[in-house]
């Protein structure tokens, strides 16, 4: 299992893909925990390494770096894993003898030099540079400084402690203050709750809960402001997408806030609606469900490979009136299936920096640079202008993003518009 986690981490690091696209449906929850946990806590894990390693983590060969991160992660963030197992299994996942020797040496050194105890045994007084805590779970004292001195650089300390890029931390602190910035970082380090949207017309939340319980899952109904209730699944989720209810197309897995997007768009009978950035298809499917065969959805995306997921979803949910096709919003080509007067409504669920969903997509934070938000915003503005040309007179345009950054969200809505633009924050605040 550690070997599988290691291989995914190495591939993520090369930029090949996001972890969510490399993990398979049959990967165990433990592999997911290891992969997502290491990606979330990477900066903290590297700081621990750097305090005890012979050289900086950035100079290590990628497999060694991933194995050391895996070992430190298990030590600091997973309860109930014996220290020797955390070391030996991380090291055992490596292939080369020289890699094993380095990882083994440094991990053993770290184990010898961190004192992990229950939080109530903390007598205080330790330097913040040597102290790490998981509130209510454990506190760890290192023999050497691991974190930057907060007196000398508060943002650097917070960034290393909460494992987010320093420029982003400084930006958030300047904008919303330290307490809120830390809350956002905690959200970015948390495991997002798992929600299901019952397939409209096929299932309702209470019945779906009953069926899922019979399949061995623990689930409950969650009320929503904008639409019908959703279902939350807690605890083990292994059978979720192999179970009968999933195969029968009774639900989609979707973040609860993202369920609002199609409802804000408010599809009406006989409308033709364009989802211009549709893959992997969660919102396009929802729009089609709300139209219930009375109207048409054109679901397009720039990447043909990503459209396979949309087609699978359409088949599984038995949706009608939905056309899936490749199309680049920024091309001169009109989208396929455009009515002569234009679309009645358009959803532009644009690519963005993902700063509001770092819990679900943890590695996105490591791709951010100070200029990223403005670059993204510029592309999004071009996309808004491009799709707007295909809107019918009086039509509705909903723009959504998963970013907390004003450039990528409300500032778009403040830009003078030729036709109404609804800005919709599908992100947690
Ligand atoms: C946030 S995701 C969309 C998620 C989707 N709406 C859903 O609910 O499942 C953004 C999508 O935009 C697509 N995309 C990026 N640039 C594009 C472009 N120029 N034209 C069309 N699609 C694009 C990406 O391939 C990606 O699938």
Folded structure, characterized:
- The protein has 429 residues and is of the alpha/beta class.
- It folds into three domains: 2-112, Orthogonal Bundle (N-utilizing Substance Protein B Homolog, Chain A), CATH 1.10.940.10; 194-253, Sun protein, domain 3 (Alpha-Beta Plaits, 2-Layer Sandwich), CATH 3.30.70.1170; 259-425, Vaccinia Virus protein VP39 (Rossmann fold).
- It is 42% helix and 17% strand.
- It has 16 helices and 13 strands.
- It has helices at 2-13, 19-22, 29-52, 62-77, 83-92, 97-112, 154-162, 166-176, 178-189, 205-214, 244-247, 259-265, 282-291, 304-317, 372-388, 410-414; strands at residues 114-117, 131-134, 138-142, 194-198, 218-222, 230-234, 251-253, 271-275, 295-301, 322-326, 343-349, 391-401, 421-425.
- Strands 10-9-8-11-12-13 form a six-stranded parallel β-sheet. Strands 5-6-4-7 form a four-stranded antiparallel β-sheet, with helices on one face.
- Helix 12 packs across helix 13.
- The protein starts with a helix and ends with a strand.
- Residues 277-283, 301-303, 306, 328-330, 349, 351 line the site of S-adenosylmethionine (SAM).
Keywords:
single chain, alpha/beta, Alpha-Beta Plaits, Rossmann fold, 3 domains, 16 helices, 13 strands, 17% strand, binds S-adenosylmethionine
């Amino acid at each position: 299992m550690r070997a599988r986690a290691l291989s995914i981490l190495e591939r993520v690091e090369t930029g090949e893909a996001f972890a969510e696209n490399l993990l398979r449906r049959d990967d165990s929850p433990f592999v997911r925990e290891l992969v997502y946990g290491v990606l979330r806590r990477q900066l903290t894990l590297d700081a621990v390494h750097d305090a005890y390693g012979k050289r900086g983590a950035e100079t290590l060969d990628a497999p060694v770096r991933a194995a050391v991160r895996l070992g430190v992660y298990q030590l600091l963030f997973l309860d109930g894993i014996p220290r020797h197992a955390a070391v030996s299994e991380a090291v055992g996942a490596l292939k080369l003898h020289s890699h094993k020797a380095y990882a083994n040496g440094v991990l053993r050194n770290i184990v010898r030099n961190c004192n992990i105890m229950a939080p109530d045994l903390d007598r205080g007084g330790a330097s913040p540079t040597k102290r790490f805590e998981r509130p209510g779970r454990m506190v760890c004292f290192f023999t050497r400084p691991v974190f930057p001195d907060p007196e000398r650089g508060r943002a650097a300390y917070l960034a290393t402690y909460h494992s987010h890029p320093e420029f982003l931390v400084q930006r958030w602190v300047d904008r919303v203050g330290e307490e809120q910035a830390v809350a956002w970082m905690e959200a970015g380090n948390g495991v997002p709750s798992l929600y299901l949207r019952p397939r409209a017309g096929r299932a309702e939340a209470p019945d779906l809960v009953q069926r899922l319980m019979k399949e061995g899952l623990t689930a409950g109904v969650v009320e929503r402001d904008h639409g019908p209730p959703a279902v939350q699944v807690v605890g083990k989720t292994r059978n979720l997408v192999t179970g009968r209810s999933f195969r029968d197309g009774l639900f989609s897995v979707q973040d609860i806030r993202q369920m609002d997007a199609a409802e804000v768009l408010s599809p009406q009978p006989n409308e033709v609606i364009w989802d211009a950035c549709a893959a992997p298809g969660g919102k396009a499917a929802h729009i089609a469900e709300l139209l219930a065969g009375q109207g048409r959805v054109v679901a397009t995306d720039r990447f043909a490979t990503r459209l396979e997921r949309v087609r699978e979803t359409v088949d599984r949910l038995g949706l009608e009136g939905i056309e899936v096709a490749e199309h680049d919003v920024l091309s001169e080509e009109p989208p396929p299936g455009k009515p002569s007067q234009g679309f009645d409504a358009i959803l532009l669920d644009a690519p963005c920096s993902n700063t509001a969903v770092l819990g679900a997509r943890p590695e996105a934070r490591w791709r951010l640079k100070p200029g990223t938000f403005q670059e993204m915003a510029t592309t999004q503005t071009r996309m808004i202008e491009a799709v707007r040309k295909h809107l019918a007179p009086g039509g509705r345009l909903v723009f959504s993003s998963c970013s907390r950054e004003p450039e990528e969200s409300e500032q778009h809505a403040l830009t003078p518009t030729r036709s109404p633009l609804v800005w919709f924050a599908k992100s947690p605040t």
